[in-house]
Predict the structure.
Amino acid sequence: MAFGSEAQVGHGGKTGGHGAAQARLMLSPTVIVLLIWMIVPLVLTLWFSFQRYNLLRPAGGFVGFDNYAYLLEGHDLWRSIWNTVLLVGGVLIATITFGTLSAVLLNQPLIGRGILRLLYIAPFFVMPTVGALIWKNLLLNPVTGLFAWFAHLLRVTPIDWFSNVPLLAIGIIVAWQWIPFATLILLTALQSLDQDQMEAAHMDGAGPIARFRYIMLPHLARPISIVVMIETIFLLSVFAEILVTTSGGPGIATTNLPFLVYKTALLRYDIGGASAGGIIAVVLANIVAFFLVRSVATSMER
Amino acid sequence: MRQPSASARISLSALAWIIGAIVFFPIFWMALTSIKTEAQAISSTPLLFFRPTFANLASMLESGDYLHFAANSIIVSIGSTAAALVLGIPAAYAMAFYPTHRTKNLLLWMLSTKMMPSVGVLVPVYLIFRDVGLLDTRVGLVAIYTLANLPIVVWMLYSFFRDVPHEILEASRMDGATFLQQMVFLLLPLSAPGIASTGLLSIILSWNETFWSINLTSSEAAPLTAFIASFSSPEGLFWARLSAASVLAIAPILMLGWMTQRQLVRGLTFGAVK
């Protein structure tokens, strides 16, 4: 429970103005720093997005919505928005599904449960660049990778993952890193489930599926919404996995919004265009955040 | 709960171990590759049994390269965590013990700064850093990581401070304890585990952060994330070497994560899941 009840909210008043003034003073550095962090770069990004500004040809000037028009007319922006949505959506579905299943499994009285738990959550702590390179070179490589060897054993042609299904390949890597997060959170939530209730349901003849459907899933609704919120924040900005595997290609098949802006700014030196892309990313993230923050706030108040 | 039969328990365990082995396999395979020779590493028949060599790990540790990047990772993670705690502890204290009608909105606003995609502000941050000479410096990275982690740090600390009974601090105030005494002798000891797990989460997030490290550093201040990314270039395709560097890059954080997993759940969910 993150937010206080009404009684506690009134607490500050009782202790008098002195403490409250001190509290404001203690709060201000963080608020000021975050305000600056939020406003200054964002205003600058907005400003640059209306400029013709290329680092190689600095002379520019105000161009109105040209940068936006150029982006919106082009094919790259729409494709990268679509790629972003596919990646976030696909990974969310995979992590919630597999995370729930493995949490339910790990919640059973298993042999070596402590060690199992460590195995299941390990990928979450692996640096994104490490995870991506290991998958790319040691596992998915079409010639020397382990998957190719399996394919040879089964006498089928190995898949060239990053050429044929590049977005899926990146999705697999990202899901591998985030399923453990869902597992960890959902497992902890399951452990606080009232065992008497499960027992009673069992006595009343509810089978495992009914118990899962009517007792476990409702209990998991809140932790699942938290997993969705936190993962969305991080998945909207997946970057390292793309940079070290496909660099956004082939073509723009794996270019998501962060990668599009990165390419425009630091490879093509087009500050104006990159800024416009950045603002579009911010707008999209805010649309998502609006719903997420609201649902989390209500779910935390309970 | 009723114990399942022995056979059910054994078959469930077997299933769980098979899945666990699959999930952990990439990490295991990387560790195994790090103790192979380059020729063994790219062998088209995967080798499970071979005479291990620790030459790759040793040469990584001996080369100035790895140590330089590891030092950057350590300094930047610890530095940004310290800064976030120094800023965050008073702020969380103020909101937990002197809440007003605005506190909840303030917390949500802080969290919403985390929703702003880094990519939206990459361009100005890059240009500002370039103009004031912060590009490729540890100070620059510390500043960015501090700002990126601050909202989460404040939220976590807030949820831990809320669990400290108000009455204790109030009683000490009655007895004439100054504000500083309350902080040092009561609040910090009472919430030490919470502060520790907040710090650990911040270290883990900073250690693994990649977007800013790649875009704002080149060689001087580059941490391990950027160092590993440099292996994606064609000349970096020595897989045993890559694996050795990777093992050394993830080992400390993996250990830290394993040791603190229970506290992390609380932190990552802002105390909403216990």
Remarks:
- Chain B has a mean pLDDT of 86.
